[in-house]
């Protein structure tokens, strides 16, 4: 087993590890031990040894959560060797993959075999386990979250046991662990439902705020995948509609794609954010220019090349899941909040959809959902803006994304999730000593 800072190959004891930081740089953890197991068996040995030493255990992915969900001062399990596709079953329509595999590698491997996930989020830098465990989702009329596409998993529990879970085997654990915040154990493998690769046609075009909000139900219903971005301080939005296509493939041109996805969306936007952080008064003018810079375009490609895009500008984010019936009203309130305030917001507000699902801690559990996400450039004071936004979202029965900034606690969340008690009871059974706990889980799940 490869380890950091001299943890021995039996999962034994080692000296202190160096600090771990998340992608945004707002979370730092200082574990006393770090390990990088390469198999389920090595993972189980490592967990068992840590528990015997009285340490807490958390698994880290690539750090794309803005919350300290993976932070620990005990054993931090790193993902870099627990990777790779373990098997593809074409007849069953599944792929089994090690928990630390980056979504990029999974998508590229599936494409090489003529297969695809049904839906995915808009970046693919996360590990599969980290993305599933925190509720990563895309946008969709009929599908959205990655966790809802999981058909089986292997979970290492606090005593080092390995549970193989599915709808048929340990179904109650399977229901919770698909989106479990790392509170039930450490996932070593995941099995996803996949389908033969298909093509998506993306239609991106600007639209006025009044039009997109007035037509939201029509746009969300008539398209398989609909999302839009509103540029604060303007009445402008950018919309994206993705629908399955018979083809042929017609990806963006190399030059035009680079201009849209790299030069404008990353390079120029990075400069604009830096200027806005230094001179906040310039932000409304920059927003007006930015909202007019992206023109309409249509292209057709395989799914992961349409669903995902590079995100090189670093930021912090808050996202709330709202009942679909109240979401557009909340968005209008958010716009009014920005207009009457002194806030200067350089990042667009993102709006996506999801159908109801049956996972206890899914933000779409039991209700059709609209997600509203707000961002600020890394290093910009965010507390006042996010606090004001959160008041709007919670007034509309919002549920915070588990991996994005929020201030909610277990008392609020127990009311927001009808099956919250079912999950915490499962946690009490699997981890009564809270070996997989940390300060974040104490806040959101209780103790």
Outline the secondary-structure elements.
Blueprint lengths: L1 E3 L15 E2 L6 E2 L3 E4 L3 H13 L4 E3 L15 E3 L7 E5 L4 E5 L4 H10 L2 E2 L11 H7 L15 E7 L5 E5 L4 H7 L8 E8 L1 E2 L2 E10 H6 L1 H7 L2 E6 L5 E10 L8 H25 L4 H11 L3 E5 L1 H5 L7 E9 H17 L8 E6 L14 E9 L5 H12 L4 E2 L9 H7 L3 H11 L8 H7 L2
Parallel strand pairs: 4-6, 5-6
Antiparallel strand pairs: 1-4, 2-3, 7-8, 8-12, 9-13, 10-11, 10-12, 14-16, 14-17, 15-16, 15-19, 18-20, 18-21, 19-20
The count of DSSP E runs of length 2 or more, i.e. the number of strands, is 21
N- to C-terminal distance: 33 Å
Largest sheet: 8 strands, antiparallel
Q: Which structural class do you get from the secondary structure elements?
A: alpha+beta
| Rg computed from alpha carbons, rounded to a whole number of angstroms | 22 Å
Look at the structure and give the mean pLDDT.
92
